[in-house]
Design goal:
- It contains one helix and 21 strands.
- It is mainly β and about 350 residues long.
- It has a 17-stranded mixed β-sheet that branches. It has a two-stranded antiparallel ribbon with strand order 1-2. Strands 11-12 form a two-stranded antiparallel sheet.
- A hairpin with a 3-residue loop joins strand 7 and strand 8.
- The N and C termini lie far apart (about 195 Å).
- The N terminus is likely disordered.
C-alpha cells in the first residue's frame, strides 16, 4: 500500500490549538481564584463583627463546633440627676414687736367743766380703808376670785402701800378660798364706799413685763369698773392685761363685750405699756365711752352704754402661764365728774 505523507499543517492551525489550551488554563485559573476569594470572604465574615450593628456575632474558639452568642447592646451612660437643694430650716415665728406709745400728754380729762370726785395718790404707809376694801364680794380676809378661770385667792397680805405707790403682788403659794389655788393675788375695790355714774377715770400704773419678753405684760392686771348686777349693769375695762397685751373693752348684757371701733380697732392698741409708768383712762359719758392710753384716743363704743352706778377695781391676778412673784404698782387713780 502506498504511503502517503501527512498533510502540512495549515498556517495558523497549530496556533488555534495552542490558543484553546491557553484559554482553558486561563478559565481554570480564574475559577480557582474566584473560589479562593469567596472562601476568604466567608471566613473573614464569620470572624469579624459587623460594623455599625448594635448586635455582635462572635465565634467562640473550642474543640467543639463553633458556638455563637449575641452580645448585649451597649447601655447608654445614665444622665446624672441634679441634687435637690437643701430645704431651708423654718425660721421661728418672730414675736410681734410692740411700738412705743406716743409721748404722754398732761394728766386730766378733756377740756370742759370738771370736778375731782375721787382721788387716791397712795402716798401713805397703809391702804386707806375708808376708800378701799380688799377682796371680792363684800367678804373680809381671803376671798374667792372674780373669774372662775383664775388660779388664785385674793389675800389682803398681797396689798401694800408705801413709797408713794400701791403695790399688788402675785406670789406662788397654796391657798383656800372655796377653791384650792396655787397663787395669792391682790385686789382692792371701792364698792359701797365710792359708787358713781359717769365720769373721767384715770390711773397711772406700772405693769411688769414677761421674763424674756419685757414688752408683754405679765399675768392678769386690771384697772376697771363694775356695777352691782353683772353684766346687766355693765363693766368698763380701762386697762386689762390679756395674753401679753393691754386692752380696753366694754361688757354689757347684749354683746358680753365690745371691742373699740373708731381710732382703736380691736381694743388692744400697739404700744409698749410695760416696765414704765403709763396712764390709762376712760371717759364715760351718756351714750359713749372713749378710752385714752398715755393721753391718746384709742377708740370708743356707743352701743349699750350703761347708766348704772359703778365702783373702781384694781387687781393683779394669775393668768396661765403665771409668773410669780411679780408686782403691779399704781401711782394714783382719779375720777372727775361734771358738776
Amino acid at each position: 500500500m502506498t504511503q502517503v505523507a501527512p498533510p502540512t499543517p495549515e498556517r495558523g492551525h497549530r496556533r488555534r490549538r495552542r490558543d484553546r489550551s491557553r484559554r482553558s488554563r486561563f478559565v481554570t485559573t480564574t475559577v480557582i481564584t474566584a473560589v479562593v476569594i469567596c472562601a476568604a470572604a466567608i471566613i473573614t465574615q464569620g470572624w469579624l463583627p459587623t460594623v455599625g450593628s448594635a448586635k455582635q456575632t462572635v465565634a467562640v474558639k473550642s474543640s467543639q463546633p463553633p458556638q455563637f452568642y449575641e452580645a448585649p447592646p451597649t447601655k447608654p451612660m445614665p444622665t446624672p440627676k441634679p441634687k435637690p437643694k437643701p430645704k431651708p430650716k423654718p425660721k421661728p415665728t418672730p414675736t410681734p414687736t410692740h411700738t412705743q406709745a406716743v409721748t404722754p400728754v398732761p394728766d386730766g380729762p378733756p377740756p370742759g367743766d370738771w370736778t375731782l370726785a375721787f382721788d387716791d395718790e397712795f402716798n401713805g404707809t397703809s391702804l386707806d380703808t375708808t376708800k378701799w376694801s380688799t377682796g371680792w364680794g363684800g367678804g373680809t380676809g381671803i376671798t374667792a376670785p372674780v373669774n372662775s378661770t383664775e388660779d388664785d385667792c385674793y389675800d389682803p397680805a398681797q396689798v401694800a402701800e408705801g413709797g408713794g405707790a400701791l403695790s399688788l403682788t402675785l406670789t406662788r403659794e397654796s391657798e383656800s378660798c372655796g377653791i384650792s389655788a396655787q397663787y395669792a393675788a391682790g385686789l382692792i375695790n371701792t364698792d359701797g364706799k365710792f359708787n358713781f355714774t359717769y365720769g373721767f377715770i384715770q390711773a397711772r400704773v406700772w405693769l411688769p413685763g414677761t421674763p424674756g419678753n419685757p414688752d408683754y405684760v405679765a399675768n392678769w392686771p386690771g384697772v376697771w369698773t363694775d356695777g352691782q348686777n353683772w353684766p346687766d349693769d355693765g363693766e368698763i375695762d380701762i386697762a386689762e392685761g390679756i395674753n401679753g397685751n393691754v386692752c380696753a373693752f366694754f361688757h354689757d348684757a347684749a354683746t358680753v363685750y365690745q371691742a373699740l371701733s373708731p381710732g382703736g380697732g380691736n381694743g388692744c392698741p400697739n404700744g409698749v405699756y410695760t416696765e414704765g409708768w403709763h396712764t390709762f383712762a376712760a371717759n364715760w359719758e351718756p351714750g359713749i365711752i372713749t378710752w385714752y392710753y398715755d393721753g391718746v384716743d384709742i377708740g370708743s363704743v356707743t352701743s349699750g352704754v350703761t347708766s348704772a352706778p359703778m365702783f373702781l377695781i384694781l387687781d393683779y391676778d394669775a393668768q396661765s402661764p403665771a409668773h410669780a412673784p411679780d408686782t403691779m404698782k399704781v401711782d394714783y387713780i382719779r375720777v372727775w365728774q361734771h358738776p
